Amino acid sequence: MRMSGFVGRQAELRLLHKRLDRVITSREGTAIAIRGRRQVGKSRLVQEFCDRADVPYFYFAATKGASSVESITTFLAELADSSLAAGQVGPPTGVTGGWPDAFRVLGAALPETPSVVVFDELPWLAEQDEVFDGALQTAWDRLWSRCPVLLVLLGSDLHMMERLTAYDRPFYGRADNLVLGPLNPVETGHALGLDAADAIDAHLVTGGLPGIIRTWPHAMPPADFLRRECEDPAAPLFGVPESALLAEFPAPDQAHRVVESIGGDNRTHANIAATAGSGQGQIPSGTLSPLLRRLTEEKRVLAVDHPLSTKSGKPALYRVADGNLRFYLTIGRAIQEQARRGRPQIGARVLERRWTSWRGRAVEPLIREALELAGQAGELPWPDVTVVGGWWNRQHNPEVDLVGADRSPVAGRIDFAGSIKWIGSAFDRHDLESLRHSANHVPGYETGRSGLAVVSLSGADIGTDEVDLVWGPDEITDCWKID
User: Fold this and answer.
1) pLDDT, tens digit, for every residue of 145-157?
2) Distances (CA, A) of 400 to 13, 81, 371, 372, 403
3) What is the pLDDT of residues 177-188, one digit of tens each?
4) Which residue ranges form the domains of the chain, and what is each CATH number?
């Protein structure tokens, strides 16, 4: 049986209800801007909140590519049908004088009792009309903020949503900001009824996206789910990342090729330049560097990892930030193509052949994040650890999976080095000797003072006194549990 209904987000629902309580108590308006990548569940969260809030609301979702005239006409028609207007606003008889007039109509419809107004995909409205941001600010200052209304602004364009409330923008200082990320591994496991190891696998392939998690039958092991999806080319496991690629990169341009290259495990600047180039050769550094920066800092499609030690190190390694998109580019798309050709058995073999190596790489940032959370909470043997990364040199020989330090990007002190072994066999003495050898290459690591950490899917077959920390799936997922 597939999952149905609302998945997770209890903390976020509490935050929204807290702001509605503020509106109810103060009898004045409160605004909150929520941003997050596509398919992370922003619209579903806010609709669930509206359904539970038991107050009148108006939910307007913008349409990509619509003209300003079309959007305003739709806005007024949907306002007339909403519980907020309750018959006070008639259907539009013609196009108004623009967003300022439409916002005045909304202001006149706001009741004296608490209510909620939602604008979904706000950046699309700003794209349509250059005066939209200013009109929104004016309407808020002069009309809406004096009413007991919670204004919720949603957007998937992270950079545009950040700009909405930036210092030099009209809505600066007027809205709280909430970044909605994917579900964490504990939420994923709880929603699916899976143990820690399977919850981590499920989180890696779904990216923690609720729209995919809802299609996963309860308590079905990841291996069974993935084999089943090999038969369905339209499965959300493939459709969601495919749609995200089309939305972010509607044309096969240079940015698209760069993401494809990194998804294919070309992670260094040099390799990306060579593999993402066109027929004219590799991408020049002067073109690639700002493009990587935009994809990392503005689009948030990519993440970048730097070697962590007491010395500044190179090279930086890029990776696709969203786990589901990373799975799709490396494995999922090949499976989907075989399913479209009616050859699911070939897709299953692709999965079997690539799964172990992909999972071993994909789990690394998740484990580093878990250890970093534990360090910041004071739950590691090293009380000064606040950041956890990895270390490598230009030759990538050796590579150290885990490095715990007091700060980044250049550490003042290295407290531990560690290894991740996420396969079916235990971490053994051979692995331990390799870790000891590699750790000594990390600048700042000191044998006898710095410790050793092991994170293993299948446990450790070594003496308990030979390393300082041994973690498995349960300890990893515990880092996201809230007491």
Assistant:
1) 999 999 999 988 7
2) 40, 59, 15, 16, 7
3) 888 999 999 999
4) 10-179 (3.40.50.300), 185-360 (no CATH), 363-478 (3.40.1350)
